[in-house]
Amino acid sequence: MASTSNADTSTISLPVVFTTQTSYPLPSQKFMIPATWKRYQLSQLVNKALALPKPVPFDFLVKGEILRTTLAEWAAENGVGEEETLEIEYIESVMPPEKVSDFPHEDWVSSVSCKLQGQFITASYDGHIRTFDYSQATTSSVHAHSAPITSICLVPSSSALDTDTDTHIIASASHDLTAQLTQLSLRAPTKATPLATLHLHTAPLSSIASNTTGTHLLTASWDGLIGLWDTSVPASDEVPDLTPSERERKKRRREDEGLKKKVPRKAPLGVLKSHIGRVSKALFSAASGEGGGGGGGTAYSCGFDSTVRVWDTENGVCVHTISVFAFSSSSDSIKYPQTASEKPFLDLAPAPAPAPAFQHTVLAASTDRTVTLYDVRAPTPTQAINPPISFMHPATPSCLSSQQSSTHQHQFVSGAYDGIVRLWDLRSVKGALATFRAWPGAEKVLSVDVDWERGLVGVGGEGGFAVWKVGNAR
Amino acid sequence: MAVKDVAKNGKKRKQSSEDDAPAPPTMTVGELEMLSDEEDGPDAVSDDGEVDEFPEIDTRSDSEDEEFEGLDEGDDSEEEGDGYEEEDDSSDTGSLHVFPKAKTIVSDITGQPKRVYPEIEPDYDSDSSTEDDPNRVGNVPMHWYDDLPHIGYDIDGKKVLRPARGDELDRFLSTVEDPSAWTSVFDKNTQMDKPLTTEELDIIRRLYAGEVPDAEYDPYEPTTEWFTGKGKEEIMPLSSAPEPKRRWVPSKWEKQKAGRIGSQPSSSHPPPLPAPKPRLPTNSESYNPPEEYLPGEEERKEWENQDPEDRDRDYLPQKHSALRLVPAYDCFIKERFSRQLDLYLAPRIQRVKLNIDPSTLIPKLPSPSSLKPFPNYSSLKFTHTKGRARCVSVSPDGGWVISGDESGKVSLWEVNVGREVKSWNFDSQIGALDWCPRLDVSYFAVTVEEKIHFIIPPNVHGPVLSLTQALLAPATLPPAPTTPSPVKWVTPSTSSRSMDTPILTANLPASSGLPTQLAWHRRGDYLATVSTGGTQGGVWIHQVTRRHSQAPFKKVKGAVQMVLFHPLKPHFFVATQQHVRIYNLSEQKLLKTLVPGIKWISSMDVHPSGDHLIVGGYDRKLCWFDLELSDKPYKIMRYHTRAIRSLHFHPSYPLFASSSDDGAIQIFHSRVYNDLMTDPLIVPLKILRGHEIRDGLGVLQVKWCSRQPWLVSGGADGTIAVWCS
């Protein structure tokens, strides 16, 4: 063993094979690496071996763990003998995150979106949707809901509106039991106008999501229903108005709020009903956008009933249900089948990579402080069922964000109630690649949105909205 | 009497001899051993004795006096009877009377020696009976004359005056002059001193020596053989019946009894263990052992160098060619001594020792990790800045929490975000709050000083809202109850109604204090409140639909701490300071009184099945009652280090939680079985710490989320924590 004495470690070499999925492959051959080497020496080795014009820092993954010590120490910790050939995968290093800008809010920010070029969109508990440009100036603010907004999403420009690149539609979901479509015009003066309100749910909404082409929306609610909507704005009310007393109340509230013009009330295309508890997130699969109109495609949802469900939105049926069996968090790895509500899920995100190993997988954050990777395909008898990979957090992970990107194929971001945002790599299960504390205190993070194109992570939560620079933006 | 006197004299004399040391020893008359050894100054003694005698006699009771007198008289009569100084009376038998002694003289006539008795003079003097009796009193106690100047009467009927007695000095002089004064006593009959006779002195001496007083009695006289001895045997049997068999057959009953004693020795006295036997000698101990037993030179050296206790045997084999060459055994004394020690220290009895592994006494409990899910970490915290968070409640759908603090603020927030959505402010401390358990309506009740407010939360779905409004503020009010109630129900008018004010308020009677507890019936129509500081126990049961309140108890013994509705039956639990009473509300009678043995009950909760009740106290105890089983607790647990504040059963999971002033919350797995034979399984799962202790108060209330194994706890530090699994 290399750690027997210092004199030995200086001379001992470990056989190592390097693999990578980056664009800097090394020839597959065995290297004898001194056991005292750390990440820096290894990175230099790769750079020299490839004779890169500009040095690229690399991180090294050994058996699902990022190498942070010398090889000898790692081998001693994991009980690997010096004869064993180590397979080390190297990835491009993630730069330490830096704070770019801070957008203080009076109230908590429940949802953020960085998808719109040049703008940040935030939704707050005071019912406002705000947009900011990169110079931290508020470009617009609209009081969209009378109750806290829980979620927003940018509806990508669909055929109806893509002629106008400065006009975007934002969908928002709120505690007031409705979702809303708001048109945001970026031409000066920026203006936000409500287009339609979406009426289906009888309990506060928890999330809203759009497909990639922007033709359809999914809303998830506490009442266990998932609403499927198209994004067309109806000419007139599709849903009758509420009871007189309720209308009275609404009226009064509108008067209080400064008299907004009445917007058409929209009805859902369909209702996906199978969850037996609060649905916390519903989203379209990445591939479902190509299916075209008619609401066709696949959707995923997760809820407090500890299930992740896969939906055929065209027929409105639940295709597959993943019921969670809890795995003991300790190392003894004994399975205990449990009652249904073992893992109430808080958020769901598609796995970031198009790589075959991670296709058809979703990440789900649950209140047992794990983010777990689930295979959503229907299990086939021949396929071996692997236990899902879990990423452990010290606090409740409240939000997840991932984006398909050629440079960050395996990375996703999670925010937690301890105020720390973590950047994870799917191959490094045991520790996050990078962490940063969004605000000085331990304010809760409620929403993260990552944009690998620009290397930005928007963080919304108790402390407002902050933008951090993460990753290797080019 | 005389003995006493003498003894007393001795004592007194001793004293006096010490007092007046120069008193010269004078000659004494009698040789009385009993006195002689202590005798120093007999003259002074008798005098002293007599002086001291009188007061002693006088102070005695009458009966003793009489006895005393009688004895004196007896002495006198005896004295009168004999008159002589007779020494040789040992041969005489029977009486104490001493006959005139005969003289042996040689007869003139016969020449033979003959006995000659003194002449009896036939005059009155010769016989004592004819003597002139100096007694003029008769046979009456002499003390009758004690306070009279005379004693008796003479033949002429004249009083015979008491003879004059000299004073102390005269008496002393007389004792000095008269050598026999110390053996004389005062005779009351004759009113003069009389010397004791030799016989009397002898009697005294014998009594003093503990002998038989009668000098004639011989305790050692030879036995007179009357029935045994030569010629007196009975040869012929009295009866001709043959000798019975039992004379010569061993007794059956004795045999049985002996068998019984022998066969059951272990009950009280087990038989002593046999003494340890000495080891038998082996070949090597022989005087002429085979060669292979003999130690070599190295073995011998090694044996000698070893300590005696380390040697494997305490001798070295030695070879002697003949037994007569064997020397004396030099270790004999030592060996005998160690053998004695062996016997002395050997155990007399075999004690049955219980070899119990302590770990087997601990009940086998399943591992907590197999009993997941249960809350194990604090997911988020909500803070009341102004005061202690006294009370929390979770909505029946599990999405919202309301919490009230001591400054009068009620906050509504999401369970798993912790963001306050709305708050209501009241002007006094919040006593209790609870969500209505109905799912088709949505409102909650908040108690402040003498008031119960009913509030509708915001963002309620339309139909639910209208139903709630119709329930709490109907267009047509229900008819007023026939009996007027002191509780007034008030709804603000439609115009002044807003989301910030309660839609309905029940005003409890004035000065009834703060309702500190609120319990809903599971149907959500009735609720019970407990006020502190008011009269009649402060228990009220309110019916929301009829807007009617009643006090179910005219008078409750003790201060009511808490009330609860049974989840299934029309039963009502009332916890007073030390008892829990169960009432049947429909039959209006007391069903049961549970005695938890807690000094001051602080909280209780009933299991959702309704068959089990947990009661917690300020004295840290928690009692689990199986209501089907007994009035006594099934299990008493004391695991908190400070007073228990709050208890709650999870409505669906087999969990309960208890919170305490030590700042900790303990989670228990509590599985109950429908089978009456199986005991409930209670497993401690987790101690949740995180609340700070302020002013000696820790966690004031815990509540479970209805659908998740999540716990909401309000602490004295103003924070409300949500604990997730």
TrEMBL record, chain A:
WD repeats lie at residues 198-230, 412-428. GO terms for molecular function: ribonucleoprotein complex binding. It comes from Tricholomella constricta. Keywords: Nucleus, Repeat, Ribosome biogenesis, rRNA processing, WD repeat. InterPro entries: NLE, WD40/YVTN_repeat-like_dom_sf, WD40_PAC1, WD40_repeat_dom_sf, WD40_rpt, WDR12/Ytm1. PROSITE patterns: WD_REPEATS_2, WD_REPEATS_REGION. Residues 16-73 form the NLE domain. GO terms for biological process: maturation of 5.8S rRNA from tricistronic rRNA transcript (SSU-rRNA, 5.8S rRNA, LSU-rRNA); maturation of LSU-rRNA from tricistronic rRNA transcript (SSU-rRNA, 5.8S rRNA, LSU-rRNA). It is found in: Nucleus, Nucleolus; Nucleus, Nucleoplasm. This is Ribosome biogenesis protein YTM1.
TrEMBL record, chain B:
Signal peptide: none annotated. Residues 268-279 have a biased composition (Pro residues). GO terms for biological process: maturation of 5.8S rRNA from tricistronic rRNA transcript (SSU-rRNA, 5.8S rRNA, LSU-rRNA); maturation of LSU-rRNA from tricistronic rRNA transcript (SSU-rRNA, 5.8S rRNA, LSU-rRNA). Residues 145-375 form the BOP1 N-terminal domain. The keyword Oxidoreductase does not apply. InterPro entries: BOP1/Erb1, BOP1_N_dom, WD40/YVTN_repeat-like_dom_sf, WD40_repeat_dom_sf, WD40_rpt. WD repeats lie at residues 382-423, 637-678, 699-725. Keywords: Nucleus, Repeat, Ribosome biogenesis, rRNA processing, WD repeat. Residues 297-315 have a biased composition (Basic and acidic residues). The keyword Metal-binding does not apply. Residues 34-56, 63-91, 120-132 have a biased composition (Acidic residues). Pfam families: BOP1NT, WD40. It comes from the Eukaryota. GO terms for cellular component: nucleoplasm; PeBoW complex; preribosome, large subunit precursor. It is found in: Nucleus, Nucleolus; Nucleus, Nucleoplasm. One of its GO terms (molecular function) is ribonucleoprotein complex binding. Residues 1-141, 219-315 are annotated as: Disordered. Its main location: nucleus. Component of the NOP7 complex, composed of ERB1, NOP7 and YTM1. Within the NOP7 complex ERB1 appears to interact directly with NOP7 and YTM1. The NOP7 complex also associates with the 66S pre-ribosome. Component of the NOP7 complex, which is required for maturation of the 25S and 5.8S ribosomal RNAs and formation of the 60S ribosome. Belongs to the WD repeat BOP1/ERB1 family. This is Ribosome biogenesis protein ERB1. It comes from Tricholomella constricta.
